[in-house]
Amino acid sequence: MELIPDENNSPETEENNYEIDDKTLEDKAFWFERSLDKECCIYGWGRGLRKATQLYKENMILENDLKQKENEIRLQKQKIEHLRMLLETKTPNIRNSSLLDEISTPDILTPDIITPK
After folding, report:
1. Hey, which residues does 82 pair with through a beta bridge?
2. For residue 64, what are the CA distances in angstroms to 53, 71, 77, 86?
3. Is residue 6 in some structural domain?
4. Mean pLDDT of 43-52
5. CA 54, 58, 64, 67 torsion: positive or negative?
6. Sign of the alpha-carbon dihedral angle for 65, 70, 72, 73
7. Host domain of residue 52
């Protein structure tokens, strides 16, 4: 017996909506509880407890994955901030010539602009 509620019994949510409201959460928990209760009544409490333990382990694994992803995001944000700081602290070289004023940044590579002829 599957503990996941049937599509007809569970509330509909958008696929791309990752935020869950309280009512939807309560509905899903209710349908899970009913399925688990049915499982325990038919097959005994041992099977229900094993299923609950398995779900708890899966939840712990997901929490660990979430912490790893949060750490990766934090490291990437630090890298971005470091690169932004490096870019902002570069001071341009200003050369005055009689024909035109030139501003160049020799320590920052910029692509050559090709003008059509």
Report:
1. none
2. 17, 11, 20, 33
3. no
4. 85
5. negative
6. positive
7. 22-88
Predicted TM-score (pTM) of the model is: 0.50
Q: What number is the average pLDDT over the span 38-44? A: 85
Average pLDDT of 26-31? 89
Would you give the DSSP letter of residue 105? -
pLDDT bucket at 76, cuts 50 / 70 / 90: very high
Is residue 4 assigned to a domain?
Answer: no
Q: Cα–Cα distances in Å, from 57 out to 21, 52, 53, 63?
A: 24, 9, 6, 10
* CB-based contact 104:92 (threshold 8 Å): yes
Position 75 pLDDT exceeds 90? yes
66-to-21, 31, 69, 89 alpha-carbon distances in Å: 20, 26, 5, 34
Q: Phi and psi (nearest 5°) for 66?
A: -60, -45
Residues in the chain, overall count: 117
Residue pair 92/105 in contact (Cβ under 8 Å)? The answer is yes
Residue 99 falls within a domain, yes or no? no
pLDDT tops 70 at residue 2: no
